[in-house]
């Protein structure tokens, strides 16, 4: 359905996207994972035909979308990372306005608005102005507007950034329903691993404008089949402790996480004694040490040496 | 397209700060300035007598002699010729004009100076020694009499030189001459008719000579002046409001979202022109009606007046639409809204000053008035004021054409600048 071939984009000497290749099949759901500045939004802007690439091409059902943007635009829904809504208008007015620009009118438009408001759970609040909405409600309407014309392909650019758990869960449910029940193809970008793990069939990991790994979740996690991830739970964060861990030749990577530290080591390495000794030297009080099943976050850490949200 | 315009109208009208700037502020200023300067009626302000040079190159005796020869050549009996010459002496237009200019009624208004020849008078005009020069050319009496008696097109023209036609003093002198012309023609026609002469006369300026098309302007009240002044000034803010809103649409990604729906970039730009035109028309209508209801600004005016007012307002709203499109194109092409900020933060005040919104600019100098008329608001303010003073629409057509040209120019530039391919 969608093919991106060797896509490049340069801005005044900076390469934002550097040779990206990806494909998305009919009814499939893929995730584009990467930290801020990885080039995800630029890639999406090019797929949406809003930005022309420096080189490479994007084909939708075999047609070059830059030569014929009208092939993709009518069937494409994009949920931007920003709240692209008119704050002075009500939710209903925003949906009506964008619905009309998609060519809907009359009863068909009214029915569609009601249906989507129901889907995102905001029927009762439809007459309130967007500026009075909570962040989560704005995100839901931001998505609702993109669904007005029943797109075949839905691109969602970090749709859950900075919202309450209830709205987040609602959005994820809606996306899952659109994909599984209505067969909508979805390209989902996020730096929340758990969302991508939950929603997507395949994942592309992007960093510094390049796809550094891709495959199903299982395929990606198998990258870490020869390694273990150890979580060291600790109250204090000590740079000295990190330095000491890094100096240990058996530890491949160390990173600070909310609960303490995460280290990646070769599978089967027994490091518990070393960890406690170094913690003692650095006066770090260790609450616990756990060996974890690898997550996509760990894959990203392994591939880039950084956390996704660094 | 209509939904784009409706959206602009709703978003702007619901924004309290925009509502304050576009409607409340001008109304407050009209009220303050109108009451503060209410005692001053523009056009009847106390002023010093206007220094006017009168140059008479005409020689009545020679003209009568020439006239006598023409009558004799026509075969008119000697006795009738004598009577006609006596009548001609009595109705001499030059003497009549001198009488009018020296009348006690005009002595407060006109300071007549007669010691100049043409060259000296023109020199005095450039140095502000006199503000107008009236020249009665050679054979003026002869041509006038000939035109009346023989019903022929006249060659008699009174010369009037002024520093600036839009200066209030110039308007007064021109008005006096026009009134004299009308009155003289009328009296002469009646005089001939009552004496049973067979000569038919028509009451028109042509019989007397083409002086000027100016008529005496009606006075403009402070409320009228500042209603127009504030309306044209604050209408300029519509342009920056629309362009600033367009930039906000781009910055907050609504523009990109719109483009993805398949909306054409030039359609979007056109919607900005129409939105600005409608907003300006609504703003002007509300201000004019509110001012009339509150301060009787345009009470008692004719339907023709309101139609002309609507025409000027429509043309003005077109140029505001053009300006809005021009600034929108720049803001979106260069991804920077500095143009709207510069316009609303500084340019509007400069335009308003030059255009005469803050005070009558011609009081400073004729050059300032000329500069003011090069701004869209200044040109339209001149048209509005001339309309209030009772001028005919043909008198301010040049200003209307000028502003229409500006509108076309701004829209053409906007179309050239606006991005048609790169959309974010």
Q: Overview of this structure, please?
A:
- The complex is a heterodimer of chains A (310) and B (424).
- Chain A is α/β, with parallel strands linked by helices.
- Chain A is 33% helix and 29% strand.
- In chain A, strand 12 and strand 13 form a beta hairpin.
- Chain A starts with a strand and ends in a 6-residue tail after the last helix.
- With 424 residues, chain B is mainly alpha-helical.
- Chain B is 67% helix and 5% strand.
- Chain B has helices at 2-13, 16-36, 60-73, 78-90, 93-101, 104-107, 118-126, 140-150, 168-194, 205-208, 222-251, 254-260, 265-295, 303-333, 338-355, 366-372, 376-388, 397-417; strands at residues 50-56, 110-113, 132-136, 159-162.
- Mean pLDDT of chain B is 80; it is low at 196-216.
Q: How many strands of chain A?
A: 14
Outline the low-pLDDT stretches of chain B: 196-216
Question: How would you classify the helix and strand content of chain B by structural class?
Answer: mainly alpha
- Low-confidence residue ranges of chain A: none
Number of strands of chain B: 4
State the separation between the terminal residues of chain B, measured CA to CA: 21 Å
Shape label of chain B: elongated
Which strand order spans the largest sheet of chain B, edge to edge or round the barrel? 2-1-3-4
Helix content of chain B: 55-70%
Write the layout of secondary structure elements.
The complex is a heterodimer of chains A (310) and B (424).
Chain A: E1 2-11, E2 14-24, E3 29-33, H1 40-47, E4 55-60, E5 63-64, E6 76-79, H2 91-101, H3 106-120, H4 135-146, E7 153-157, H5 165-180, E8 185-190, H6 193-199, E9 202-207, E10 210-216, H7 217-221, E11 227-234, H8 239-247, E12 251-256, E13 260-266, H9 272-281, E14 286-292, H10 296-304
Parallel strand pairs in A: 3-8, 3-9, 6-7, 7-8
Antiparallel strand pairs in A: 1-2, 1-4, 4-5, 9-10, 11-13, 11-14, 12-13
Chain B: H1 2-13, H2 16-36, E1 50-56, H3 60-73, H4 78-90, H5 93-101, H6 104-107, E2 110-113, H7 118-126, E3 132-136, H8 140-150, E4 159-162, H9 168-194, H10 205-208, H11 222-251, H12 254-260, H13 265-295, H14 303-333, H15 338-355, H16 366-372, H17 376-388, H18 397-417
Parallel strand pairs in B: 1-2, 1-3
Antiparallel strand pairs in B: 3-4
Helix pairs in contact in B: 1-13, 2-11, 2-13, 3-4, 3-8, 11-13, 11-14, 11-15, 11-17, 13-14, 14-17, 14-18, 15-16, 15-17, 17-18
């Amino acid at each position: 359905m969608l093919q991106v071939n060797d896509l490049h984009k340069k801005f005044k000497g900076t390469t934002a996207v550097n040779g990206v290749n990806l494909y998305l099949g009919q009814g499939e759901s893929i995730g584009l994972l990467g930290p801020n500045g990885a080039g995800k939004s630029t890639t999406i802007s090019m797929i949406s035909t809003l930005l022309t690439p420096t080189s490479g091409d994007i084909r939708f059902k075999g047609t070059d979308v830059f030569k014929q943007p009208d092939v993709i635009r009518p069937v494409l829904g994009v949920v931007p990372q920003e709240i692209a809504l008119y704050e002075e208008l009500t939710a209903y007015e925003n949906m009506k306005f964008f619905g009309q620009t998609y060519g809907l009118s009359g009863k068909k438009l009214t029915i569609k608005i009601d249906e989507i408001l129901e889907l995102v759970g905001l029927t009762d609040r439809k007459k309130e102005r967007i500026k009075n909405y909570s962040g989560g409600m704005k995100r839901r309407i931001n998505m609702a507007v993109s669904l007005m014309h029943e797109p075949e392909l839905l691109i969602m650019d970090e749709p859950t950034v900075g919202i309450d758990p209830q709205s987040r869960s609602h959005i994820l449910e809606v996306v899952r329903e659109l994909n599984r029940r209505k067969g909508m193809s979805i390209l989902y970008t996020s730096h929340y691993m758990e969302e991508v793990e939950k929603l997507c069939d395949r994942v592309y990991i992007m960093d510094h404008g390049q796809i550094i790994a891709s495959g199903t979740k299982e395929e990606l996690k198998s990258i870490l089949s020869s390694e273990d991830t150890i979580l060291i739970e600790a109250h204090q964060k000590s740079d000295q402790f990190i330095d000491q861990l890094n100096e240990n030749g058996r530890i491949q990577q160390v990173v600070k996480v909310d609960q303490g530290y995460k280290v990646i080591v070769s599978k089967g390495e027994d490091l518990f004694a070393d960890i406690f000794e170094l913690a003692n030297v650095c006066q770090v009080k260790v609450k616990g040490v756990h060996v974890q099943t690898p997550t996509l976050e760990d894959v990203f850490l392994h591939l880039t040496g950084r956390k996704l949200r660094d | 397209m209509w939904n784009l315009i409706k959206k602009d109208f709703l978003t702007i009208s619901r924004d309290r700060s925009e509502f304050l700037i576009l409607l409340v502020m001008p109304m407050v200023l009209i009220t303050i300035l109108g009451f503060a300067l209410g005692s001053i009626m523009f056009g009847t302000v106390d002023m010093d007598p206007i220094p006017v040079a009168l140059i008479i190159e005409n020689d009545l005796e020679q003209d009568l002699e020439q006239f006598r020869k023409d009558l004799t050549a026509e075969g008119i009996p000697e006795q009738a010729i004598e009577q006609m010459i006596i009548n001609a002496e009595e109705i001499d237009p030059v003497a009549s004009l001198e009488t009018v200019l020296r009348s006690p009624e005009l002595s407060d208004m006109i300071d007549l100076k007669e010691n100049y020849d043409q060259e000296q008078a023109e020199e005095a005009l450039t140095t502000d020694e006199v503000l107008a020069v009236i020249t009665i050319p050679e054979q003026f009496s002869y041509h006038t009499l000939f035109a009346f008696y023989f019903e022929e097109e006249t060659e008699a023209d009174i010369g009037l030189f002024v520093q600036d036609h839009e200066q209030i003093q110039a308007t007064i002198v021109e008005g006096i001459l026009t009134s004299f012309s009308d009155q003289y023609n009328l009296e002469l026609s009646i005089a001939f008719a009552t004496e049973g002469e067979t000569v038919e006369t028509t009451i028109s300026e042509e019989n007397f000579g083409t002086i000027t098309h100016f008529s005496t302007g009606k006075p403009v009240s402070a409320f009228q002046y500042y209603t127009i002044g504030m309306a044209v000034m604050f209408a300029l803010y519509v342009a920056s409001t629309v362009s600033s809103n367009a930039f906000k649409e781009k910055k907050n990604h609504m523009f990109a979202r719109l483009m993805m729906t398949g909306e054409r970039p030039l359609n979007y730009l056109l919607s900005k022109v129409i939105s600005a035109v409608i907003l300006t028309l609504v703003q002007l209508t509300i201000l004019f009606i509110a001012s009339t209801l509150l301060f009787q600004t345009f009470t008692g005016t004719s339907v023709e007046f309101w139609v002309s007012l609507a025409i000027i307002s429509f043309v003005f709203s077109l140029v505001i639409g053009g300006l809005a499109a021009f600034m929108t194109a720049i803001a979106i092409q260069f991804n920077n809204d500095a143009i709207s900020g510069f316009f609303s933060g500084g340019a509007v005040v400069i335009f308003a000053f030059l255009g005469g919104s803050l005070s009558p600019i011609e009081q400073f100098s004729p050059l300032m008035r000329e500069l003011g008329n090069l701004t869209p608001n200044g040109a339209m303010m001149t048209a509005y004021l001339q309309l209030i003073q009772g001028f005919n629409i043909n008198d301010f057509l040049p200003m209307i054409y000028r502003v229409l040209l500006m509108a076309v120019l701004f829209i053409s530039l906007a179309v050239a600048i606006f991005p048609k391919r790169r959309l974010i």
